Amino acid sequence: MAATPELDAETCAALRGAASAKFSLGLQACGAEAPAAPAPLPRARQAQQLQMYDPAPVPPAPAALAASAAPVAAPAPVTRRWPASLGRALQLAPVVDEVALAENLDPLLLHAIAHVESRHDAAAVSHAGARGVLQLMPATAARYGVQGRSALHDAPTNLQAGARHLAMLQRRYGGELDLMLAAYNAGEGAVERHGRRVPPYRETQDYVRRVLGEYGRLRAAAASLVPVTVR
């Protein structure tokens, strides 16, 4: 590599005034050390910076820089879009209230089950063949007079049959909600085979936990009259 040529005093003064890393070779020629790179921020400080500037501003394109003197229009207002599941739940609320009242069930429990099962989606079909808002199996629905798979995609029909099934389980298990939900998910036979306890199936135990959690959240929101945030 060739030696760095010496520069005159006027040029060196200008380079030192610039204090920029891109002039490091010129500063070496003037007998000065190139400016050191800034030390990295401590980890905690980095986290603060990310919080303060997240999302980071996007640098303007060259064309935008040329037009920076022009007036900048105000950003369009952001319109909040509610989840589709919330719209379905609100649409089905009158039917849920009606079938819950008819079967002496808490409407919030039906909403919690519908949320966990299908997000209140009448078109939902599980990998096992359960259908509709409350994800009823055709054989279970047939016990309550609902024949044919297509009928289970009619939301009022599905909710009515599901509510009747839940009411039967409520009577059978004396209002023990965890057993009632376990039987709804895994069948009464599974609960009975395991000594009237929640079966040791990961899916069933997770199901019971999720429904109880959603039910508790809905009850707490209703009690405090705080709008519910749909996840």
From TrEMBL:
Annotated Pfam families: SLT
Source taxon at top rank: Bacteria
Domain Transglycosylase SLT positions: 97-198
Gene3D superfamilies (UniProt xref): 1.10.530.10
SUPFAM superfamilies given in the database record: Lysozyme-like (SSF53955)
Family annotation (InterPro entries): Lysozyme-like_dom_sf, Transglyc_AS, Transglycosylase_SLT_dom_1
Residue runs in coiled coils: none
Record-linked PROSITE patterns: TRANSGLYCOSYLASE
Family according to the record: Belongs to the transglycosylase Slt family.
PANTHER family, sorted: MEMBRANE-BOUND LYTIC MUREIN TRANSGLYCOSYLASE C, SOLUBLE LYTIC MUREIN TRANSGLYCOSYLASE-RELATED
UniProt name for this protein: Lytic transglycosylase domain-containing protein
Source organism of the structure: Rubrivivax benzoatilyticus
